[in-house]
């Protein structure tokens, strides 16, 4: 009898210990796993590095301030050096970890993994704004307006502000890749629909250290506006060459001179750091809220950077803002699933993202307009802000706007 009592007490003790252990684990809440693969080093790391810091810092903030209560987000961030094979390996390993949402970076890897995303039925927010990402795809979400929309918006700005009755002559300066070439066909569609510009020449730049011949050729053809869709370094080289040749317009559309404009990754503080005063007057469009503007959103961005010890360069980068924004969108999707009483899984996060529209749109303090998604529209912020380089910083011109012709093309 005594031995039975001892056995019973031992079994009871084991149960108590197991219950206590389980209660301790549950008290810590659930952990939602995400993954990010991007170029922290290698090509485009000037954008990828601050982007990764924005993602990391915002998720740390979510966990430190208990935005999700006792639940936490665990986002594994890995460098893929802008190589699609490494990105694919990272993504497959993230799937083995049980991620519920994936953050991707480059255009090449987004296009290359499109079928994988479809098979896994996993929502993906990408740093690539290439509109082609959305073709034959259901699970890819762009955080802001596409490269096409940004380029067309700049062409519309040229058409509306060009002085004179002649059709403004434009050259496109493009990156020799899917992300660079992507907007060309959409700009041509806009022209067919009535956008009043003439594309005189399309330049797919190489690694040229001198653009003198190209700039002189454009001038000889009567080009007054050069719209760039590439990254900062080739634009900086072109602007310095234009300054040296004395062909940069001192006012918008100055006759006999070149007015330079650029979309997405062509501008920002990084361009000014590379081009110096040659960037003066450069017009750039973005959906991000720059820290050169003193408002509540930029104060929050700078406060986040200070909280986690980031330097001034990272703190003021629009790529840092981009990283914060995608982390905010992911967090908001998780938060909405929790509030709705749904399990936080791939299917329900996909549902939450598609429901971000109308009164349910999401406002990120890093952007100039709301994030809106639906089953037929997976480009996030539709509003764009024109910025102009003045006195070594980019300052906004007018108020945020939407592309008229992009809506017709869509």
Keywords:
Rossmann fold; disordered N terminus; 2 domains; 45% helix; alpha/beta; 15 helices; 410 residues; 6-stranded parallel sheet
Q: Give me the number of helical elements.
A: 15
Number of domain modules = 2
**What is the alpha-carbon Rg in Å?**
24 Å
Strand order of the largest sheet: 7-6-8-9-10-12-13
Fourth CATH level, the homologous superfamily of the largest domain: Response regulator
Mean pLDDT: 93
Residue windows where pLDDT falls under 50 for at least 5 positions: 1-9, 11-26
Report the CATH architecture of the largest domain.
3-Layer(aba) Sandwich
Spell out the helices and strands N to C: HEHEHEHHEEHEHEHEHEHEHHHHEEEH
CATH class of the largest domain: Alpha Beta
Helix content estimate: 40-55%
Report the biggest beta sheet as strand number plus sense, adding barrel if it closes: 7 strands, mixed
CATH-assigned fold name of the largest domain: Rossmann fold
How many beta strands in the DSSP annotation? 13
Strand fraction: 15-25%
How far the N terminus sits from the C terminus, by CA atoms, comes to: 81 Å
Describe this structure in words.
- The chain is an alpha/beta fold and 410 residues long.
- It has 2 domains: 31-145 and 293-377, Rossmann fold; 148-286 and 386-409, Rossmann fold.
- The protein is 45% helix and 18% strand.
- It contains 15 helices and 13 strands.
- The protein has helices at residues 2-27, 45-64, 84-97, 107-112, 114-120, 147-161, 178-192, 212-220, 232-245, 269-275, 296-307, 312-315, 318-339, 346-354, 404-409; strands spanning 31-38, 72-79, 101-104, 124-126, 140-144, 169-174, 198-204, 225-229, 259-263, 283-286, 379-381, 384-390, 393-401.
- Strand 8, helix 9 (232-245) and strand 9 (259-263) form a beta-alpha-beta unit.
- The longest helix has 26 residues, at 2-27.
- Residues 1-9 and 11-26 have low confidence and may be disordered.
